[in-house]
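User: What would this chain look like folded?
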Amino acid sequence: MKQMETKGYGYFRKTKAYGLVCGIALAGALTLSTTTFADEAITLNPATNLTTLQTPPTANQTELANQAGHQSDELVSDVSNAELDNAVTKAQETGVAVKQSDKVTHDSLSSAQADLAKQMETVKEATTKQETNTTAINQAMAENKAIDQTNRDEKARVEAINTKGEADIKAKNEAGQAQVDAQNKQAQAAADTMNARLKADYEAKLTEIERIKAENEAIRQRNQQASQATNQANQAAQAAYQEKLAEIERIKAENAAIRERNQKAQAAADAMNARLKAEYEAKLVGIKQIEAENEAIRQSNQAAQAGSDSTNEQRQKEYEAKLAAYNQAVQAKAEAEKKLLNQVDFSIEAKANGVDNTKYGNSIMTATTKVDGSFEFRHDMIDGQKTIGYGKLTGKVNHHYVANKDGSITAVIDSVTFNTYEYENVAKNSAVNKNIVFRIVSINGDEIYSKPHDGETTFKESLNKTITVNKEFALQPHASTPDIQLFQLHDDWIYNTHGSALVAYKNNNDAVPNIVIPSKPVPPTPGKATPTPEKPVPPTPVKPEEVKPTLEPEKQVPAIPEKPTDGVPNVEKEKPVPPTPDKPVVVKPDLKSFIPEVYVPIKPVVKPYVTVPEKVVYEIMVHPVQVKQTPTNVKSVTNSDQVNIDGQLVPKGSTVTWELVNAALKAGRQDITSYELIDPLPDGFELDVTATQTLSPDWVITTDEAGKVSLKASQSLLEHFNAKRDQDVEVPKVSLVGRLLNDAGTYHNTFKTVVTTPNGSYTVTSNTPVIYTPGNDPKTPRNPGGDNPTPHDNLIQPTKTIVDDKGQSIDGKSVLPNSTLTYLAKQDFDQYKGMTAAKESVMKGFIYVDDYKDEAIDGHSLVVNSIKAANGDDVTNLLEMRHVLSQDTLDNKLRALIKASGISPVGEFYMWVAKDPAAFYKAYVQKGLDITYNLSFKLKQEFKKGDITNQTYQLDMGNGYYGNIVVNHLPELAVHKEVLDQDGKSIQNGTVKIGDEVTYKLEGWVVPSNRGYDLTEYKFVDQLQHTHDLYQKDKVLATVDITLSDGTIIPKGTDLVQYTETTYNKDTGRYELAFKADFLAQIPRTSEFGADAFVVVKRIKAGDVANEYTLYVNGNPVKSNKVTTHTPEPPQPVTPKAPALPSTGEQGVSVLTVLGAALLSLLGVLGLRKRQQ
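Assistant: Here's the prediction, encoded as structure tokens.
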């Protein structure tokens, strides 16, 4: 794998200069060339071919696009007709008024000729009408003169008839009117008599009704008086009845009182008798009881002393039971409170107010916390364009909890401690103002810490400051506190990025009953038996006499009286009132009227005049005519499949054709002296002059330095235009063929047509089609003022990350030799959604390349975990996987494709090629569905240390794009062993006496921080030479400061024995010291870890002793150096021979036997011990 040299936008890239030169000599000396120089702007996409950034449109291109559809000037020619001229002269002689209007322009010769023919018909028609009008006037005037005499004779005859008829009608009407007047007078007299009779009858009925009403009113008054008298009698009878009832109730009550007094007297007598009897019987019983008690006393006194010891023993058992219950309640309450406190959640949140805009970037702040209150605040520093550094503040919120009786928890914040602030610079500060001040401010506005800097230097400072808070918050079960602000952070820069530390608690406990602890019992005091004295027996009592009460007699109760009945008054009935009569209607007489007869005179029949036509002067309008042409032009763009791609997203590098179409020249035109097409092609479009000339042979192509293309009609084409000017003629189409050279390209193209005649020139501008290539940054849409025509388009950037077995990114972190490296690589297709690509582009294929570091990664260990599209499809079987050991092993097609794409994998790499590019394009590329590769590798065994790099490429339709380089570091795993004397000095290759103690120092490997794995094993294994070294003891010390996940810091030099398990096998001499798994699980990846073990042995035999040890870290064995010591044979003392006494020999054997047995016993205990702390 080969890394790119230049870093930009988070990706490593290589800059290249491409010279793209093409040209052809046409019509003399015509050359078209496009050259990209190294100092030109580079695309924002991580491209490996065609990397030039498209320049904005020129002023000429923009101006022409703004004139789209515009026309200027026109092509005109006159049209005449001699026959029409003769007809106009004749019409004027006949009397027709002939006028001439403005010249009329037509858009075709046929239309102009039709206009002249129509004018000819109009002139002839007017001439005929003028002649006809003159003849008709003369005939009408002669006929009207004869009609005048006929009408005078008819008038005299009719006047005589009308005079006689009027006199006869007048006499008849006067006789009829006299007869009608007499009849009407009789009818009026009869009506008056009838009306007088009806009125008298109506008034008599009204008088009778008023009389009956008055009589009924008197009846009502008499009835009211009778009712009042009856009511008074009823009330008097009712009062007498109630008085008798009350007397009866009074007697009943008096008798009840008598019965009550009699009952009380009887009860008192009964009570007195019962009391006297009870006292008598009680005295008898008491005498018997005293006698029985005395007997019992005598018996109990005899057994009291014997039972005293048993009673004391029982009391002691009860005390012990109560004490056990008390201790159990104390323990239960402690465990309940501990559980309550463990169920409280504590969190710290950073509420950051940052800058979020495209000009100054996005500033963020985050916070992480641990259960003990330790926290980390992280923020970035942006100079308005990029991130220049990262800051980290560490500290701790000091707090504790108190469990309450009602199941609630009181959270108490005591103080906040600030430990360190560190700043890591990652880029140069490009801001003009570099005065950065990182400040910590209390909620009261007091400054706790201030650190001015310019953002370009990495530093770390210890704060060691504590501020007092002293806040308490009561939490009922499942209750939470609101956010509690503790302090604020500021950087006082261009835009003050500041944040607040917000603390929150949540009580996750259910409501629990309060555990009541009983009072602690007091030990019992042993009791002694005391003899009970006997009681005195009283004398026998006298039997009492019965007491009798004096009772009162009850009174006689009268009978209940009969309830009175209410009387009913005698009421008179009122008379009925007749209904009010209707008012009479006035009778009107039927009077007749006389209608006189009217004489209608007759009228003479008048013969009308014939109409004399008016004298008409016909006017006609004639006009000269001409032919005008405004031929239009249209531009379109197609791909190699001849598909219209106007407004579409198309592949970079694809071949497109701009088609320039002009409307036909019409008949009636003047000679065409020049016909020219001017097209300022967009930047990034590489014109294929040869293909263009082949498709457009009738045109002469020239270009200028700005890339503007001029296409002029050849001489033969002009002659063809002018050969038959009375006929329409087609203009040959122009096809400009070329390819697109830019990512994120926007290609607008407009052309204009200039037609020249002897009278002038005519210009028309075409429409403006547009096409796009993918690779646009979504933060800068193609059309900021309106809709984005490519809404799914963004940068083309394959990405890769490395993850652990939990799916967490470990990019940039260290790994171990036996680590499995799992890479997630994304083949970026989302920007292609909705694309229109020709078959020619699609068949160049889709390739993903994984270029790993040959020296570090074992390519043969690859495991393809999955290859999936963004919609979840498994596309593994749609791709052909190739393990490429060298590009030379590829077939010519793939080798040429990789070379053309510009990617540069070196050595071994893997590539996945779409088997069916067309189907793959339709199913995933055109839908914008990214492909994610989940790949796992192992490291080569011979790779011991260094960086492990991996990069990805993607080839899309012939275009190459490089991804980011994922880097991991393999540190060298090395350990060391020393042998020390009792003073701690090295005695490597030294001498050790028998019986001396030596210490083997097993120096462990320091596991680095910022690693990509959890620590699951850290074990020292030492194969001691047990025939010469007798294991005595060991210890293990931390070699670095260790920070646990809860924030606890174990300082360097701390004895870690409590976190380990040690095993020693006396039979083999194998010594193992391993750290417990639960302890290693508490060491986060952000903390270093290292330890040295010290093994103390006692030399028990002479000879050379060599020793080495192996450290196991997560299954990786690391062997140390070998240490050697020498033990000489001890000098043999000269012992004089003693007398051979049997008893002495037996005694010596016995002593040696005892010492040997003791030594073996000690060795067994030491050899088999296993410490677990």
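The first helix runs from residue 59 to 66. If you want, I can go into more detail on any region.
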